[in-house]
Amino acid sequence: MRFRASAKSETVSQWAGLWMRIDKGSEVVGFDNMQSRPLKGTADWQSFDVVLDVPKDATSISFGVLLTGSGSVWVSNASFETVGDDVALTDKPLDDNRPKAPVNLDFRE
Fold first, then answer.
1. How many domains, the chain?
2. Local confidence band at 95 (pLDDT 50, 70, 90 cut-offs)
3. Could you give the CA distance from residue 9 to residue 4 in angstroms, rounded to a whole number?
4. In a domain, 98, yes or no
5. Residue 100 counted as domain residue
6. What average pLDDT does range 13-35 have in this prediction?
7. pLDDT digits 0-9 by tens, 45-55
8. For the chain: N or C, fewer Cβ within 10 A?
9. What is the rounded average pLDDT for all residues in the chain?
10. Handedness of CA 50, 35, 39, 26 (dihedral sign)
């Protein structure tokens, strides 16, 4: 699924970006907030994409724009479209090999 929108920023002190999250029940199965390719400072209108895999058993898609720090962000022409496997994802899939509980709590190697 591709979330595309035009955005511009004014005096963004930290960073801003579009975001989209894919949930399966209470589990987050996809997430991108453009933190690795943020809007900063003042920038004129540009088009941005967030592309994530949406499993068939996904239960919700949430989206928006975020601003960290001071400044302003405007968004226009937002759209969603189904895309094929030939369109690159904009963020890495969540690592399913993450530990399910805290590890190394005694701080040993």
1. 1
2. low
3. 16
4. no
5. no
6. 95
7. 999 999 999 99
8. C
9. 91
10. positive
Neighbouring C-beta atoms of residue 7, cutoff 10 Å? 22
- Give dist(CA 10, CA 41) in Å, integer: 6
Structural domain including 26 reads 2-81
Do 95 and 28 touch, CB atoms closer than 8 A?
no
Return d(Cα 15, Cα 93) in angstroms, integer.
Answer: 22
Identify whether 55 is part of a domain.
Answer: yes
Between the CA of residue 4 and those of 36, 55, 63, 105, what are the distances in Å? 17, 19, 11, 42
Would residue 89 count as lying in a domain? Answer: no
Residues ≥6 apart with Cβ < 8 Å to 87: 2, 51
Stretch 21-37: mean pLDDT: 94
